[in-house]
Amino acid sequence: MTAHAVELDRGAGPSRIAELATRLAGRWKLGLRAELTRYGLLRDLTHNFAAPGAKIPLAVRPLADRDLPALFGHAGPESDLAERLEVAWRRAFIEKGARGGFVAIDERTATPCYAQWLLSPRDNALIKKLGGFPPLADGEALLENAYTPPAYRGLGVMAAAEIIQHIGARPNVSLAGLARQNSLTV
After folding, report:
1. What is the spatial distance between Cα 142 and Cα 172, in angstroms, rounded to a whole number?
2. How many CB atoms lie within 10 A of CB 68?
3. Concatenated DSSP letters for 91-134?
4. Which domains does the chain have, with CATH numbers?
5. DSSP per-residue codes, 5-35
6. Quick check: helix, strand or coil at residue 87?
7. How confident is the model at residue 178 (pLDDT cuts 50, 70, 90)?
8. pLDDT tens-digit profile of 38-59?
9. What does pTM read for this prediction?
10. Fewer Cβ close by (within 10 Å): the C or N end of the chain?
């Protein structure tokens, strides 16, 4: 996934100025001073865990540039601010150099319906640049920036995708912000 791909994808979605305006509106909404709380969730991958099934058939593969329009192209000016912010956050994450994205595909239509980044110790420079995350040790992974487009929410896609199975990590750390309580619902 490249920042260049994000730029190319913007032709189908909001302009760069509109996206910056969205990000500024989101920051303004937080106020002059903001305190953010994150919860770290640890999962020991040496213990088996049966993921719940989704309500649709899924396949998981690495995220490709061609997936961006289906995942993020819907968040135009008509979308509410919260949705535009969610999409802008993921685009900025890609622009900062995020690698290791995975996508769940709706097998009925071959449409990308969920994305999440699986970061490993090789991504510690990015993790440091992002701030708010601990560096990863060998054998650890961080799941970050999970996103489901509105049309696929409520179908159990996130829990069923099991992105973490795609690398050989021991424990897995996933951080969820206090405002993202949906990420904490099982």
Report:
1. 6
2. 25
3. HHHHHTT---EEEEEETTTTEEEEEEEEE-GGGHHHHHHH-SSP
4. 1-32+73-98 (no CATH), 39-63+100-186 (3.40.630.30)
5. HHHHHTTTS--HHHHHHHHHHHHHHH-SS--
6. helix
7. very low
8. 777 777 767 777 778 899 999 9
9. 0.75
10. C
Question: How far apart, in whole angstroms, are the C-alpha atoms of residue 142 and residue 171?
Answer: 9
Task: Give pLDDT, residue 182.
Answer: 47
Reported residue count of the chain is 186
User: What CA dihedral angle connects 100, 68, 64 and 126, to 10 degrees?
Assistant: -20
CA distance 89 to 95: 10
For the ranges 75-84, 89-98, 154-163, 177-186, the lowest mean pLDDT is seen at: 177-186
What is the C-alpha radius of gyration for the chain, rounded to an integer number of angstroms?
16
Helices (H), the chain: 3-9, 16-30, 68-72, 81-95, 124-130, 157-161
Would you state the structure tokens that stand for residue 181, as one six-digit string? 């309580």
| Farthest CA pair distance, the chain | 47
DSSP secondary structure code for residue 99 in this structure: -
Residue 151 CB-half CA count within 13 A: 11
Report pLDDT digits (tens) over 136-163. 888 788 888 999 999 999 999 988 887 7
State both tokens at 76.
């135009």
